[in-house]
Amino acid sequence: MIKKDYISEIEFIDIFADNLRDLMIEADLSQAQLAEESGLDRSTINRLLNKRTMPTAKAIMNLCYALGCTYSDLLPTYSLVN
C-alpha cells in the first residue's frame, strides 16, 4: 500500500459532512435550526451534509459557533491521512 501524506478534496468533504452530521445529532439540531443558528442558508447546510460542496472558512466558523464546537471537531485531522 502506498502511503500518501495528503488528503483529497473528496476525502475532506466526506469526513467534514460525517462530522457535521454527528455534531448536529449531539446538539439535537435539524438542518433548518442549524441554518438559523449559523446564519447559513438551509440549502448550504443540505449541500454540506450531502457531500456536494467544500465548506468555506466562513461556513466552518459559523457552524462552530452554532454547534458550540471547535474547528477541529469538524475538520479531518492529520492522523486520518494514510
Secondary-structure topology with pairs:
Elements lengths: L8 H19 L3 H8 L3 H8 L7 H11 L3 H4 L8
Helix pairs in contact: 2-3
Would you kindly provide a written description of the structure presented here, covering whatever features stand out?
With 82 residues, the chain is mostly helical. The chain is built from five helices and no strands. It has helices at residues 9-27, 31-38, 42-49, 57-67, 71-74. The protein is globular and about 45 Å long. The mean pLDDT is 91.
- From the N-terminal CA to the C-terminal CA, the straight-line distance is 10 Å
User: How many strand units?
Assistant: 0
Largest pleated sheet: none
What is the number of helices?
A: 5
Give the low-confidence spans: none
Rounded Rg: 13 Å
Sheet-strand content, in percent, reads: under 5%
Tell the overall outline: globular
In a few lines, what is going on in this structure?
With 82 residues, the protein is mostly helical. It has helices at 9-27, 31-38, 42-49, 57-67, 71-74. It contains five helices and no strands.
Output the keywords.
61% helix; globular
